[in-house]
Design brief:
2 domains; Transport permease protein; Serine Threonine Protein Phosphatase 5, Tetratricopeptide repeat; 74% helix; 22 helices; mainly alpha; 0% strand; single chain; cell membrane
Length: 430
């Protein structure tokens, strides 16, 4: 049959039916042969003979129901499907067919009940969420349709019963925020998996990429240009790792809302979802690089092993807030000012040299060092070096300044998203 020799297949199947009439696979294959030959009468005859020789076989009943659906005999299909479900309750195929039959009859409440029943038995069957979304759309229940469509794309953990009254209404906001955060994390993990699966080394690039940057900058500034800084490799890595996290998050989030226009057209998802996914993905990607930084510090400098390392999570949190705030702000402006997307790369390069990634900005002459202290990323990178290189507590005044800048940017971004939310999709279509 796969070679296209249908007459040869017919001869073999004829012998098989004579010798192995009690084997269900003989009748199923014979019915498949008839289906490929577009002979529905013969297909129906083979399935009937299969049921006569193998009564109660779930797959023959299932295939008989499928044939009746194609013939338009929905009542007869229901009878065969009921027999298939009764013959083997663990099989998912008859359950799916059962729900599809309700859709064929345009009995949308019954279709909803059957798909929900299927999900109770197999909650990881994502197609059921998509089909339920269609059923809800047919019933003009568009909010539920959007929720199930997203669950089909990103996972069932996004679904919880929608609060309606009493104490449930008071917890609705918190539950919605939790679901939104889960959706961001799920999408970031899927994006990271997709990105790494396209290369032979997969997740190894998470470590190789910062290592290659380290080697290039180390050779250029320490060996060729004589940076004159003790333990320059660790010094450089303390600047590169947080900077690469920041730069990747900003560069990928800049056009994220434009890239998410198709999803915004079909769902009611908030526009800030897209830059937040970019930041989350960049954060997940840089966590192994941070571990490598700590391992290198512990291996090369005894000062790294100090109680000051306990302050590192605080520095990471402050940098995350700054990154999120700036990413949201730039992503919100780009749809309305497309030229800004072309300037992000150049701006990041300039900011890199103003942030002391490859040198200590405090060693700059005159008032330059004082001006650079107003650069939040320069303060963050300097704080990493204080903790890892020098074994000292962070500069809390500097971190407070960075946190204040991040909060101002966050509040500005939140106001921007509230006022422009319904304009993002229209701008994306231009």
């Amino acid at each position: 049959m796969r070679l296209g020799d249908m007459s040869g297949a017919a001869a073999i199947l004829n012998q098989a039916r004579q010798r192995y009439a009690k084997h269900a696979s003989v009748w199923l294959t014979s019915a498949e042969w008839a289906r490929l030959m577009h002979d529905r009468d013969q297909e129906q005859e083979y399935l009937a003979q299969g049921l006569a020789n193998c009564p109660g076989h779930w797959e023959i009943l299932f295939r008989s129901a499928d044939l009746q659906i194609r013939l338009g005999n929905l009542i007869q299909a229901q009878i065969f499907n009921e027999g298939a479900r009764a013959a083997d309750e663990q099989r998912i195929e008859p359950q799916i067919q059962h729900a599809e039959l309700a859709e064929k009859c345009e009995d949308w409440p019954e279709a909803e009940a059957r798909w929900q029943q299927l999900l109770q038995k197999k909650p990881d069957y994502r197609q059921a969420y998509t089909r339920l979304s269609t059923v809800f759309t047919r019933q003009s229940r568009h909010q539920e349709a959007r929720r199930y469509r997203l669950a089909g794309q990103y996972g069932a953990e996004l679904l919880e019963p929608v609060p309606q009254t009493g104490a449930q209404n008071r917890s609705r906001g918190a539950a919605g925020k939790l679901h939104f955060a889960q959706l961001i994390l799920t999408k970031a993990l899927l994006g990271l998996k997709s990105e790494t699966s396209r290369t032979h080394l997969n997740y190894a690039w998470v470590v190789i990429e910062p290592l290659l940057h380290l080697i290039i900058y180390y050779v250029l500034f320490s060996q060729l240009l004589n940076a004159g800084i003790q333990n320059y490799g660790l010094f450089l890595l303390c600047g590169l790792v947080p900077w690469m996290w920041f730069a990747k998050a900003i560069s990928t989030s800049a056009t994220s809302i434009l890239g998410g226009q198709s999803l915004m057209l079909t769902t009611n998802i908030a526009p800030m979802f897209f830059p937040l996914v970019s930041v989350a993905q960049a954060t997940l990607k840089q966590l192994p690089a941070l571990l490598c930084l700590l391992a290198l510090g512990l291996a090369t400098d005894i000062k790294t092993l100090s109680w000051s390392l306990l302050w590192l999570p605080l520095v990471l949190l402050v940098q995350l807030l700054l990154t999120v705030a700036l990413a949201l702000l730039i992503a919100a402006i780009v749809p309305f000012l497309r030229d800004l997307a072309n300037l992000v790369g150049t701006g990041l390069m300039l900011l890199m040299f103003l942030s002391g990634v490859i040198y200590d900005y405090r060693s700059m002459p005159g008032r330059i060092a004082q001006w650079l202290e107003y650069n939040p990323m320069a303060v963050v990178i300097s704080t990493y070096r204080q903790i890892i290189l020098e074994g000292n507590p962070p500069d809390f005044a500097g971190l407070g300044f960075v946190l204040m800048v991040a909060m101002v940017l966050l509040l500005s971004g939140a106001a921007l998203y509230r006022s422009l939310r319904h304009k993002f999709v229209r701008q994306g279509l231009r």
